[in-house]
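Exercise (ungraded).
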Amino acid sequence: DAGVTQSPTHLIKTRGQQVTLRCSPKSGHDTVSWYQQALGQGPQFIFQYYEEEERQRGNFPDRFSGHQFPNYSSELNVNALLLGDSALYLCASSLQGATGANVLTFGAGSRLTVL
Amino acid sequence: GQNIDQPTEMTATEGAIVQINCTYQTSGFNGLFWYQQHAGEAPTFLSYNVLDGLEEKGRFSSFLSRSKGYSYLLLKELQMKDSASYLCAVTASGSGNTGKLIFGQGTTLQVKP
């Protein structure tokens, strides 16, 4: 049973460029959340997608956008990259309606470096 | 507002016991998680508390006091592989079960021989 898969694992961009990160949720999950984790910090919630719509959003600018596809996979897009966008981007999947300990499954992350 | 505090770094000796504390202030509460994260890897689930008290799982235990906004993770019989970052996270009511967690900054634990 595949867990959460993310691609690419590492990438390097320059300031002002745009990036797209991809996530396939764990089998049976229908909700995808994205987190940004700067070096030495805990993950910060960016937004969450369910039924192809953004359901919740954290304190991130509009440069951060996303999409969810009918097969539940998701993309995170970041426009006009800044040096401060350098981070590990984590995708986490869950099943809407689930509660308790097994809410979230994290992927291994995409490491973005902005030069 | 919502705030989670945990120590930045801790050091302990192989075979010893270490307690990592976490205090939180949230607009609501629906459960507290502890995750382990090795450098460059995804967080992995360790424990979940929604009611007051101690949850034990092998070498790891987690305690919760909702009235005090306080939790701790207890690691026994420390092994070198336990060197990692330990993340405390809470779900706030209103976010329901939908996967929105509020994380602390993480505690980097170094286990020495």
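Further reading is listed at the end of the chapter. For now, observe: Chain A touches chain B at residues 4, 31, 33, 35, 40-45, 48, 50, 55-56, 58, 88, 90, 92-94, 96-104, 106-109, 111 (CB under 8 Å). The mean pLDDT of chain A is 93.
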